[in-house]
Sequence to fold (179 residues):
Amino acid sequence: GSILFPYKTISAAVTAGNTLAVSFSLEIATGGYTDASNQTISYPCVIHANGSAYTIGSGAGSLTLSNAFSIYGLTLIGSLVQSNTNQAVSTALQNVNIYGNLTVSGYFSTLQTHVFGNGTANSLITINSTAMATFSNTILGTTTANYYVRIVNSGYLLLMNSELFANDNSNYAITSTVS
Fold:
């Protein structure tokens, strides 16, 4: 894409970026975007979403990031999967809202980010055994039903100046297999 001929969908831009097989950047015009199927970004990527909303699979889909990434200013309606297990690969979210689940498998950090349930089901944050996740100035869940968050941790988890709202009477807010 270019200024004169931009990609009309995020999936078209992701496909083009993956085809290049090198690091790339997505500058997303402010607005709402929808893709029917799951998306995977396979190469290092920076996304400047400018406050845009991105819905995948009517909110039941996922965006998988399998390399280094930084995302700024995105509202994701669907799940986010960070699948790279390499601790040397930098991954970060800033000013991002996720309405869905979050899975972390490598080095992962957030700043001023929100993770919520999607209104139908509470959100599950899974920190895998290969992960090191840091949440800074981040809000996890809300006080509204089906927007709560539950964390299942098998890796390293650090919550700094963050809030966790979990009101699921049948589960703990944080379950950890790491002592």
Summary: DSSP finds one helix and 19 strands in the chain. The longest strand covers residues 45-56.
